[in-house]
């Protein structure tokens, strides 16, 4: 799948703490194969948060059978967009969110997209904190807050070492995780804990079906703001289709597997059981003590994701600050921003508490889905249809450059796209849009936001001076440097 051009660049030049943050990765430092991205996105879901996603889906009101169908379709849908974002990384050699400046402007990207991305990291990492604290409590009896701090300390070290070590860790974890998750799956399906009639489909109800669909699609789409951060060190001559498939298939397959496992584990546990306890109960039915092994393995997977969230949150904070005053991307600033993530997440998770995990996680994922749908449409339309992957990299870092401080096209398309979604939204227990209410609580906002935001941006982009921009791309000479 297009690996031939990258063979000479497989050796990682940096084994220690990563040097780069939001800056462009020079061509001489590009290395690796698209398959290395596969390990990250396969292991990315095989953890307590992925399992918890499945647990939450079953609490949305559909039967187990219809929950399974909605989960598969939602995962295939959300991963499709996320994988196309991954394909942008090798082409540009930039973190995902810095790539938003050509659409939203130097300041516009900071105040809209990046703030939402920071909320994304904090929201997901708070969920990770709750689950890691509960896992440590179940395993050792220590208080949840202390369990989180210990887990976060390990994740912080991984995040500080950055790109190379995150890739390496996920490569090591892949096969042990496959084996243990397979055994947990056997325990959940055949351990005898499922109630009678659980596989009866029952009547089809569109409202809970769409709640599950949007929630799962949103979980997969939640990777989009930082997915290409993990492909940006690949060579630019790696084909788009290669990066796409090495992201799409591993992420979709492992996501569907662990989400369905979570739903089945939840079906076999008493109502209201938290995801970690439900997992332990299911695994222990196979043989005594296996529950502890299962929790330990999925906790290790969670540490990897906590590291990815801390790393991404750090890049986002640096990006926001850099939009207002230039930041030298040093190790010290990465340490500082990761520390800020650690403290803020710890405080929020203490306020929420494990008892309210399902409610918190469900609403965080759904609200973030709404915020990112218009962004993902605009970003992908710009990359694949308007500019076709050709950007002037130095201008992305120039506040007074051709991309401007405020990209009216991106911002206007975003605001209109989001506004058009509001009447179709359903946020459980908080808000039901007027159209969704008339449809009996059916959430179809995703199918409104994508075409509206993407279509408007494409229309607005017709007034861009692309000929001048392409000439500047040629003058910059980064594409020629490949050959």
Name its key features.
single chain; 483 residues; mainly alpha; Hydantoin permease; two-stranded antiparallel ribbon; 19 helices; 1% strand
Please, could you describe this protein's structure?
It is built from 19 helices and 2 strands. The chain is globular and about 65 Å long. Helices cover 67% and strands 1% of the residues. Residues 1-15 have low confidence and may be disordered. The protein has a two-stranded antiparallel ribbon. It has one domain (18-367): Hydantoin permease, CATH 1.10.4160.10. Helix 6 packs across helix 13 (331-352) and helix 14 packs parallel to helix 18. It has 483 residues and is mostly helical.
β content, as a range? under 5%
How many individual helices?
19
Named CATH architecture: Orthogonal Bundle
Describe the global form. globular
Using the coordinates shown, work out and report the CATH topology.
Hydantoin permease
SSE run: HHHHHHHHHHHHHHHHEEHHH
Main sheet?
2 strands, antiparallel
CATH class (first level) name: Mainly Alpha
Tell me the number of structural domains. 1
Task: Give the radius of gyration.
Answer: 22 Å
Low-confidence stretches: 1-15
Q: What is the arithmetic mean of pLDDT?
A: 85
CATH H-level superfamily: Hydantoin permease
- Coarse structural class: mainly alpha
Helix content: 55-70%
How do the strands of the widest beta sheet line up side by side? Answer: 1-2
What's the end-to-end separation, in Å? Answer: 20 Å
Overall number of strands: 2
């Amino acid at each position: 799948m297009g690996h031939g051009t990258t063979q000479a660049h497989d050796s990682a030049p940096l084994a220690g703490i990563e040097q780069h943050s939001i800056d462009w990765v020079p061509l001489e430092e590009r290395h690796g194969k698209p398959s290395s991205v596969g390990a990250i996105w396969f292991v990315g879901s095989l953890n307590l948060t992925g399992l918890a996603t499945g647990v939450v889906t079953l609490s949305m009101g559909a039967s187990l059978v219809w929950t399974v169908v909605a989960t598969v379709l939602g995962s295939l849908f959300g991963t499709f967009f996320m994988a196309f974002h991954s394909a942008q990384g090798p082409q540009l050699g930039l973190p995902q969110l810095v790539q938003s400046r050509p659409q939203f402007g130097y300041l516009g990207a900071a105040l809209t997209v990046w703030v939402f991305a920071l909320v994304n990291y904090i929201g997901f990492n708070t969920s990770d904190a709750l689950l890691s604290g509960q896992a440590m409590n179940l395993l050792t009896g220590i208080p949840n807050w202390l369990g989180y701090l210990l887990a976060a300390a390990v994740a912080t070290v991984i995040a500080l070492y950055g790109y190379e070590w995150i890739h390496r860790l996920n490569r090591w974890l892949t096969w042990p995780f496959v084996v243990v998750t397979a055994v947990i799956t056997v325990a959940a399906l055949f351990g005898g804990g499922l109630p009678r009639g659980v596989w009866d489909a029952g009547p089809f109800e569109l409202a809970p079906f769409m709640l599950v669909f949007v929630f799962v699609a949103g979980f997969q789409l939640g990777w989009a703001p930082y997915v290409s951060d993990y492909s940006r060190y690949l060579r630019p001559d790696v084909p788009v289709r290669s990066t796409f498939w090495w992201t799409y298939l591993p992420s979709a397959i492992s996501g569907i597997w662990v989400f369905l496992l979570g739903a089945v584990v939840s079906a076999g546990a008493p109502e209201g059981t938290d995801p970690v306890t439900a997992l332990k109960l299911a695994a222990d039915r196979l043989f005594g003590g296996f529950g502890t092994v299962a929790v330990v393995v999925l906790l290790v997977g969670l540490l990897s994701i906590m590291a990815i969230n801390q790393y991404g949150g750090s890049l986002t904070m640096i990006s926001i600050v850099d939009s207002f005053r230039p930041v030298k991307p040093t190790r010290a600033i990465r340490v500082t921003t990761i520390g800020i993530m650690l403290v803020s997440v710890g405080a929020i998770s203490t306020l929420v508490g494990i008892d309210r995990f399902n409610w918190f996680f469900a609403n965080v994922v759904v609200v973030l889905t709404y915020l990112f749908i218009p962004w993902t449409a605009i970003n992908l339309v710009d990359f694949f249809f308007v500019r076709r992957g050709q950007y002037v990299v130095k201008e992305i870092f120039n506040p007074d450059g051709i991309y401007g401080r405020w990209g009216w096209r991106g911002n206007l398309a975003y605001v209109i796209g989001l506004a058009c979604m509001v009447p179709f939204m359903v946020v459980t227990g908080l808000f039901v849009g007027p159209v969704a209410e008339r449809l009996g609580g059916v959430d179809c906002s995703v199918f409104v936001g994508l075409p509206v935001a993407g279509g408007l941006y494409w229309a607005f982009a017709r007034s861009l001076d692309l000929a001048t921009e392409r000439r500047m791309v040629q003058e910059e000479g980064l594409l020629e440097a490949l050959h």
